[in-house]
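REQUEST ID: PR-0412
SUBMITTED BY: lab tech R.K.
PRIORITY: routine
TASK: structure prediction, single protein chain
INPUT:
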Amino acid sequence: MNVTTQPKRLSQAERRAQTRERLLEAAAEVLAERGYLGTSVDAIAEKAGYTKGAFYANFAHKEELLMALVERQCDQQLAAVEELFAEPGSLEERLRRASELIMAEGEEQRRRHLLYFELWIQAMRDPELRRRYADFNEEIRTRVADLLEEEAAHQGLRLPAPSRQLASAVLGAGDGLILQQLVDPAPVGVDAFATILKLLFQSAKAST
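STATUS: complete
OUTPUT:
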């Protein structure tokens, strides 16, 4: 006797989450291909297989979607770095692996970086988006500062400057190297970023 298994019916919340996820995935592709100004809400909805109404049921406007997309991508990457630092290994090994993760090359990484810098450009022009980006960046800075403090404590070191200042410097250096990597074919990002992180901890003093 054959028993046909009926597919599970999704709840309204699950369907909404699925729609939102598909819109984000479609937006990542279209925005990377056409840029922010060249991408319409219609194009994103069509790529995802939905109507424009489905888009506006999940996002107030294109800027909100771009912010949500970058927030998700940054959170995923930082979570991977946090997980890496929780694993056993020498400080040099962890710094190298973190640099490889952040500075990784490839089409997926290139699209992620392009979206990030698209957000930068739009935030410079849009006061509301700039405020939201600043709030999000503050969260990222805090998480990076916490990572630096925890690793310094683990190594028995005292950081050479306040952790939040160092976190800002690390984030700025990473952004600058990524931007160079997008336009300069010379693959120096991983080595350069690993060196910056290594110098930071080499300048730390033993805690007393």
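NOTES: The two ends are 74 Å apart (CA to CA).
REVIEWED BY: pending
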